[in-house]
Amino acid sequence: MMNLRMEEKLDKNECIDVRTIGEQIGPGIFRLNEFVEGVDYADAQNEAWIWSIGRDKITGEIRASTSCGYYLNPDYECLWLR
Predict the structure, then answer these.
(1) How far apart are CA 27 and CA 45, in angstroms?
(2) How far, in Å, are 52, 54, 75 from residue 15 at the CA level?
(3) Confidence band (pLDDT; 50, 70, 90) for 21?
(4) Residues 6 or more apart from 53 whose CB is under 8 A from it?
(5) What share of the chain is helix, strand, coil (3-state, %, to 5)?
(6) CA–CA separation, 69 and 5 (whole Å)
(7) CA 4, 65, 23, 54: dihedral to nearest 10 degrees?
């Protein structure tokens, strides 16, 4: 892994690889099975940090993104923002 800080955080369980708790549903977008407070999030395969996590206000589905797309999005409750 080229991103040494990401590797360190993953090794210390300070960061969750979104691929271990969900599935990719689009470019840089993941559907998560759970949300854990107090940790960082990343897509370790692509060495990309997750920038926002939101819960769909209608379906309750939790999604993570490598962009800030769930921040100030009226359709989502923003759960986490980098």
Answers:
(1) 13
(2) 14, 17, 26
(3) very high
(4) 32, 35, 41, 62, 63, 64, 65, 70, 78, 79, 80, 81
(5) 15, 40, 45
(6) 24
(7) 120
Mean pLDDT throughout 45-57?
98
Residue 43's nearest CA partner among 80, 6, 79 is: 6
pLDDT band at 8 (very low <50, low <70, confident <90, very high): very high
Residue 55 CB partners (closer than 8 Å, separation 6+)? 35, 61, 62, 63, 76, 77, 79
pLDDT-derived band at 1, boundaries 50, 70, 90? confident
